[in-house]
Amino acid sequence: MKLWMLRLGFLPLVAADFGNWSLVLLEEAVQTRGAACLDGSPAGYWIEHGWGSGAKRWIIHFQGGGWCISYEDCLARSKTSLGSSLNFTAEKSKTLEYSDGGVHGYLSNQPEVNPDFYNWNKVFALYCDGSSRNSEVEGPVVVGQKEVLYFRGHRILMATMESLMETMGQGTGLATDLIVGGCSAGGLTVWLHLDYIRRLMPSSVRVVGLPQCGLFMDQPDYQGLEYFTPLYAHIFDMMGMIRSPSLDPGCLDKYSEEPWHCFMAQYVMPFVQTPYFAVNSFYDSERNLKDIMVKNVSQSAGSHSYFLYSCVSHCGYLNHDDGWRRLVVNGQSLRGAISAWYFHERIFQGAQVQEMPDENPTCHPYGIEIVV
Ligand SMILES: *[C@@H]1O[C@H](CO)[C@@H](O)[C@H](O)[C@H]1NC(C)=O
Ligand SMILES: *[C@@H]1O[C@H](CO)[C@@H](O)[C@H](O)[C@H]1NC(C)=O
Ligand SMILES: CC(=O)N[C@H]1CO[C@H](CO)[C@@H](O)[C@@H]1O
């Protein structure tokens, strides 16, 4: 799977200080659950504890980074931080500064940037399974003569949520709020597992989803090429996804002949019951056809919210200090729409269908630096 590296070129002048963020490695869960990255190392997440009015409120952001599509590809990935925790500590600043746009925008701890969520507990869940937390193969897979791979995305999801629930229960007492976010393969993680996470949490916790750019459509692209569908059908089998307990039961029922459908957001969307606010660009990967995306999202939405925009961007707006403040669709900024939705239950259903990418003057003028 190629990595998207969009509009690179602007490095911040001052290195950010991520002193309040610490790494949690889920070491015990390797033994107890078999929750492991592709290479067998423990999964993990970065956490910044909340304070004041945010002390019992939580955001978890699921990091993205595509998928691996064959044993060889997964083996190559297992030697990087998208498949191994070996370098998580060493790569702290890089990850928190750039991955999916980093811990900016809705993950910022600055009240000017992020007045609603700045003091919440924030979790940046690292992505090391290559499956949007959906693989489930019991034994290790031997590749070549001696190399071993683990497909344990579901177990990582469980280990992560268990660890968070334990932390939530310590000190401040039970959490009141949980926003489940993510971009790209992390956005797909939200679509796939939001209802399951809802069921894991005590009912007193308000849980909502904020998936960004996790819609990879089952459609020929603008060049007539079928890109995502054959890919997903293949990795669904290869990674044992049918055994993932967090797949949507309603979707599996409907697509029992071809369950790989339930690894695609557009087919899962109509079954998602937990409130969500979908954030997606039409031009994120050049592979989406905008009219079809609008139709699909709007027909599935019901009373859910969505914010569809025409900027050339994959991840980056939700996690970008400037982008998330300035991007406007139908007279409403991304930040403002999410705030009104979360705190005043105002549904926002905005899709800006424009012929030309970046025609909207509130698209970021100088490019957003992100690595997915
Ligand atoms: C760390 O958190 C404190 C509040 O507990 C905040 O005042 C400070 O700005 C934070 N530091 C950084 C570098 O984010
Ligand atoms: C860890 O970092 C070293 C040094 O940059 C690199 O050579 C190695 O491939 C990395 N390994 C993983 C698993 O990320
Ligand atoms: C609700 C809706 O519009 N669903 C459509 C989404 O896209 C797929 C593939 O084009 C269609 O089959 C669905 O009918």
UniProtKB/TrEMBL annotation:
Residues 1-16 form the signal peptide. Keywords: Signal. It holds the Pfam family PAE. This is Pectin acetylesterase. It comes from Durusdinium trenchii.
